Amino acid sequence: MIADQAMRPLFDSLFEDLRCVLPDDIEEEKLVLNICSVFAMVLYFNFARILISRFTGCDYDADFKGRLVDHIVEFSINGLGAKSKETRI
Q1: What's the chain look like in SS3?
Q2: Is the dihedral of CA 22, 15, 77, 87 positive or negative?
Q3: Do 72 and 45 form a contact (C-beta atoms < 8 A)?
């Protein structure tokens, strides 16, 4: 029930929003996995608050949460910034 009534509408909305800004030839499976990856990051940063606070030295206040949102967005768009497959050694 939660998946169908709460998560599915959010997922479908994200799917349509992202489809508009990504290349037309992106495979549906890749887009679905990308959305799942964003969800996974959000869940991780939520459930690992103590660990993240220890690693960063930051309290989970409104300012830090805003920086986390910015990070998730930037990371989702740019990934790890790895070299393309053609230029890797």
Answers
A1: CHHHHHHHHHHHHHHHHHHHHCCCCCCHHHHHHHHHHHHHHHHHHHHCHHHHHHHHCCCCCHHHHHHHHHHHHHHHHHCCCCCCHHHCC
A2: negative
A3: yes
Taking CA 1 as the corner, what is the angle to CA 40 and CA 16, rounded to the nearest 5 degrees? Answer: 55
Which pLDDT tens digits describe the chain residue by residue (89 residues)? Answer: 888 888 899 889 988 888 887 888 888 898 889 889 989 999 999 999 999 999 999 999 999 999 999 999 888 888 755 555 554 44
56, amino acid identity: T
